[in-house]
Design a protein that fits this description.
It contains 14 helices and 13 strands. The chain has helices at 2-10, 37-46, 77-80, 98-102, 136-150, 163-168, 173-183, 200-214, 246-249, 254-257, 274-277, 287-293, 315-325, 336-346, and strands spanning 21-24, 50-57, 63-65, 110-112, 115-118, 155-160, 193-197, 219-224, 233-236, 239-242, 263-266, 297-298, 330-333. Strand 9 (233-236) and strand 10 form a beta hairpin. By secondary structure, it is an alpha/beta fold. The longest helix is centred in the middle third of the chain and has 15 residues, at 136-150.
Length: 347
């Protein structure tokens, strides 16, 4: 097989390009406001195999598809519910009922409550058009409906946002998410679903407790960030502490980690020798190789054509670096059409 692949690549074919996943990051979010149904329909139309859903719980326990825990920079919440701001200045999804959330006008991300400038200058104009919030159930029904009508099998890639935060609020978001997935038929490894989280301690609970209790066994992905992001906290020695992602980066732990998850989702910078990148040399490290030794997939995030790192000259060069030089199995991107076009070229 390897000899055949080498011959085909020599002749201009890349046998492995068909195995790479282009995952629509929050939909076709470079073109329409992230996590709106319109953005998801566009991603579906562009031909992606998977579309991502970030989920946060509402006050009345509905799974809301939104990236942040709060609504400040993607909606008109400050105008409609000024009294619901918490002391830290944020308007939290978890403080609103579904009916209240449905009354909001969603938007392309903007810089602040009093600054409607686009977070990404060349994207859909902020605070324009009529976009609304949606639930995970609504989005699943949309994707499954399109699959049925168009003869497709587009999958979902669900990220449970900050389970540790929801536990502090008295809610079990992971259990509620699994209940919804089971309701819609996503129950085993063959289901077109990935369940991902930055909260590795909670993923251990999902694998060892929740999935067996619910008669499920779906694919799990451990997201990996940088410690300084303070993305995840875990309860240790009676206090909530910043989670140390170095555990997920140490190959000595991979035999145990691979019993919990089916793959890893690092920020793509973790796939390369950072010292080499400073000199614009794109040299992969052993991250992917180590994960593959333990049969774990690697799906890094996030390629943005309008926010390229200074060590790449084009989005194609970045796709090439992540998917082929580093060898990742797939990648999240705000520009799924460009990712799919890139794979067509290398094929």
């Amino acid at each position: 097989m390897k000899k055949l692949a080498f011959i085909l690549m020599f002749l201009g074919f890349n046998l492995f390009a068909s195995d790479k996943l282009i995952i629509a990051h929050r939909g076709a979010s470079a073109y329409l406001p992230e996590h709106t149904l319109e953005s998801k329909v566009l991603a579906f139309a562009q031909g992606v195999p998977y579309i991502e859903q970030d989920v946060v719980l509402s006050k009345d326990n509905h799974l809301i598809v939104i990236h942040d825990l709060y609504l400040d920079k993607t909606s008109d919440v400050a105008q409609k519910f000024p009294d619901k701001k918490r002391k830290d200045g944020h308007y939290y999804v978890i403080d609103f009922t579904l009916a209240e959330l449905k009354s909001l006008k969603m938007s392309e991300g903007f810089k602040g409550e009093n600054d409607s400038t686009n977070a990404y200058p060349n994207r859909f104009p902020a605070k324009k058009a009529d976009f609304t919030i949606n639930t995970l159930e609504e989005e699943i029904e949309l994707i499954q409906g399109l699959n049925k009508m168009l003869g497709k099998n587009v999958g979902i890639y669900v990220e449970v946002k900050r389970p540790w935060f929801h536990k502090q609020e008295g809610k079990d978001i992971s259990k509620i998410t699994l209940e919804v997935l089971k309701k819609y038929g996503y129950t085993n490894k063959d289901s077109k679903v990935y369940f991902q989280s930055f909260d590795y301690p909670d993923l251990v609970r999902v694998k060892k407790e929740l999935l067996p209790q619910m008669g499920m066994d779906i694919k799990l992905i451990a997201l990996i960030g940088l410690n300084e992001w303070e993305e995840t906290f875990e309860y240790k020695n009676g206090v909530w502490q910043n989670y140390d992602f170095s555990y997920l980066l140490d190959v000595k732990n991979y035999a145990e980690i691979s019993k919990i998850v089916d793959g890893l989702g690092p920020t793509y910078i973790l796939l390369f020798d950072e010292n080499k990148l400073k000199n614009n040399e794109i040299v992969p490290n052993d991250f992917v190789k180590n994960a593959h030794k333990y049969n774990m997939k690697v799906h890094p995030y996030t390629i943005r054509a309008d926010a390229l790192p200074n060590w790449t000259k084009s989005v194609d060069e970045l796709f090439e670096a992540v998917l082929f030089k580093a060898g990742a199995d797939g990648v999240f991107t705000d520009f799924p059409d460009l990712g799919l076009e890139f794979l067509k070229k290398v094929r």
